[in-house]
Amino acid sequence: MRETVRAGIIGTGFMGRVHARAARLAGARVTGVAGSGLAKAQQAAPLLGADQAYATGAELIESGDVDVVHICTPNHLHAPLALAALDRGLAVVCEKPLATDAATAALLADRAAGAVATVPFVYRFHAMVREARQRVAAGDIGRISVIQGSYLQDWLLRPEDDNWRADPAVGGPSRTFADIGSHWCDLAEFVTGDRITAVSAQTAVVIDERASNAPVLTEDVAIVQFRTAAGAVGTVTTSQVAPGRKNRLFLEISGAAASLAFDQEQPELLWLGRREGSSTLVRDPETLSAAARPYSPLPAGHAQGYHDCFDAFVADTYTALRGERPDGLPTFADGARAALICDAVLASAGTGRWTEV
């Protein structure tokens, strides 16, 4: 791998800007950007710090001017672009869902074997998440009995709120669960080291028609019961129509000895619960475990957040390009895992029965 990584960004929206910023901070040169057309890419190039604009993602992939491609497009384009980049021998960072169905996601994970191919499950990169994971692994909370939580947003609360994600031809057959439930399930499995093995799900469309005047076919809400390989049970509620909730991912894990709770909107804190009393651990690199400390670069009292997590994720991806293996780096295998759970949730909601993952 060359000394300076050459990064290409496919997608000019919010996530494209986030990816480009993180790539530059990791020491990469953003050599190209592609959008829905050349004009969009030319407009975005100075905002993303890109050297050149390309009319299509395929053109950027075939240019020979990139080492890693960041795919930040609508969901239906993820799989074809990722496959094209892998075929070209490029490293790939692909937004989730990795594909709009589990079979295609599994194919991508198989094709990515031996390559650097990652998915931005960036909540793994909060220092307090790493601290929680370390404490679970060390046996501090004992055998886990219950895993529960939610991921709530309100950005699609009203009928006039609309987005390409609401179109199943573009966003896929699941919206809320594929978009944010995937993050929650990945985080729960990452922290506990345990896997969801069966689900019982309900979904609901709350807004029947949006600004596009097309009937809404993908869920606004999904509520899922589950059980795990180690015998824990759990629930998760996901919603994009929860008034006042902007991006509230909450995870609580109850064990025989203690409980842990993490709230993504208060990421400096980790709640620790015991029968004898509860306490709140505040992020401080001086007191965190060795596993969490690398993800806590700022001194205590200097709040870290979403950008810091994303920057750490991209930095670890580029570290992998140099042949190292950062702990906890989410790969295409993790993206395929999320798609598998999502397919099981949709199947369960459709039949009303428990469904194996």
Automatic annotation (TrEMBL):
It comes from the Bacteria. InterPro entries: Gfo/Idh/MocA-like_OxRdtase_N, Gfo/Idh/MocA_oxidrdct_glycsds, GFO_IDH_MocA-like_dom, NAD(P)-bd_dom_sf. Residues 6-113 form the Gfo/Idh/MocA-like oxidoreductase N-terminal domain. Pfam families: GFO_IDH_MocA, GFO_IDH_MocA_C3. It comes from Actinomadura craniellae. Keywords: Oxidoreductase. This is Gfo/Idh/MocA family oxidoreductase. One of its GO terms (molecular function) is oxidoreductase activity. Residues 129-260 form the GFO/IDH/MocA-like oxidoreductase domain.
